[in-house]
Amino acid sequence: MQAAPLHPLRTHARVLTASLVGTAIEFYDFYIYATAAALVIGPLFFPAQSVAAQQLLSFMTFGLAFFARPVGAIAFGHFGDRVGRKSTLVASLMLMGGSTVLIAFLPTYAMAGPLAPALLCLLRFGQGFGLGGEWGGAALLAVENAPPGWAARFGSAPQLGAPVGFLAANGLFLLLGLTLTEADFAAWGWRIPFLASAALVAVGLWVRLNIGETAAFAAARDSAPPPRVPLGALLTGHAPAVLAGIAGVVACFAIFYLATTFALSFGTKTLGYPRDTFLAVQLAANLFLALGILAAGWWADRTSAARVLATGAVLTALVGVVFGSGLGSGALGLVWLTLAAALFVMGLTYGPLGAWLQTLYPVEVRYTGISVAFNLGGIIGGALAPFAAQALADRGGTAYVGLFLTLAGAVTFAGVRLGRARH
Questions:
Q1: Which terminus, N or C, of the chain has the lesser number of Cβ atoms within 10 Å?
Q2: Quick one: fold of 8-422?
Q3: Where are the domains positioned within the chain?
Q4: How does DSSP classify residue 53?
């Protein structure tokens, strides 16, 4: 006897929960490493040199996962377009979550010498590889199941995982800072957030195992066999759309990692703010990221995802003009205002991405197209952001840090224009 089908409202709630939970875990996993990279990874996993050298090496391990993401995007995109969205999402979450948990058990450089950073880099690659198939699948899960007129709002559900994951990660590090001494935090406290990821991954797997395949993928599979090599079909038939998608995601990555990873390192090490104080400032500013994502989803369904993304790109360029000066002002209130404004603008560039990217590619190569574009754009906007900002700050002072944002906004605006030309 077959079970009764779920009511549409329950189905939609389950899909939105699966999209949100998965990306919340994704950002929690990635941001706990970003926070650890800004605070303890350098001295724990690299030989004693200058503090600046240790910090740069720490940021390089942070960036390594971004270079693994396109590899994961190709691999998971292949199976997502040929086998299905659901099973691919489950596999990507297991790899990403497993790599995160194992970081908690790594030996430090003092314990294992050069083996320690080697193992760290291996697990960072695993994190990035798994994450390469995560966001694209979660976005498709939401958008391809959205009722008419709700594509952007459903598509913004995975993006809300960013502030949720950021809140959980930052809040846990803040709690640890309030309860542990600096010595205990450096010795073992930093491992706790990585261990806690195991519980979150278990919840995410349970939710995703209880959803079905998307209607759009099922219809495409019934009408024609999937391409044997989705990446080949994507590049031969939709190369300009891939370029447009890559450029379109640069701004959101650049804002996020400058306002979080770089700002935390700069605020605590250069400006001298206590770690707990600056984490609290970032925690409060994070609320504006959620507001920006919600506003973007609502606005995009009433106008278009492309219009909202283009507006966010222009505002990103403008934020870049004042970001460095605001961050380096020395006034904590102005620092918070700078971060809050930047993260709200990030919401306008991040919120419409799920709805915008899926318009660039047909269903049969959509998982690959979205994943490749999102993750290659992440290398430009995310992996380079903290490194470039640190180099700009060292050469010209904090006023130059925002130049990276201005450039990122221009690149994303060009991507939106190219996407419109394709249509």
A1: N
A2: Growth Hormone; Chain: A; (1.20.1250)
A3: 8-422
A4: H
